[in-house]
Amino acid sequence: xxxxxxxxxxxxxxxxxxxxxxxxxxxxxxxxxxxxxxxxxxxxxxxxxxxxxxxxxxxxxxxxxxxxxxxxxxxxxxxxxxxxxxxxxxxxxxxxxxxxxxxxxxxxxxxxxxxxxxxxxxxxxxxxxxxxxxxxxxxxxxxxxxxxxxxxxxxxxxxxxxx
Length: 163
Description:
Number of helices: 2
Structural class: alpha+beta
Strand order of the largest sheet: 3-4-5-6
Helix content: 25-40%
Radius of gyration: 31 Å
Distance between the termini: 85 Å
Strand content: 15-25%
Order of helices and strands: EEHHEEEE
Shape: elongated
Largest sheet: 4 strands, antiparallel
Number of domains: 2
């Protein structure tokens, strides 16, 4: 942009950038930098620690497998409680896990697993109907694992009453 010099000879112009052009440039660049920073911030936050997420998923999958292999309903002379992490090795049917909570991941005998003491697990088991029959034909198992950063991972699975 060129501006005609005031009080000068006709035909001579000054060259340069006006103050308004500089301010507009700064605003545009500032908005672009803010947008790019927000994108990087979101990506970093989502992938802050993939190790924690993988560990939480491994815990949820292992517990889902453990629960899925149990009997559909309480067998004759089956375990009747109390349903605590210490007694987990005695659980013999899927409903024994309903409401089960564990602060820190432990083996079936209750021995804590090193490095997983800050994880929390909650299990919910609810009836699931797979057809028009009025009685439950299965269980919906929901496992929620909270990692040390406070992020929750929810894993749902089903256990059918197959004969």
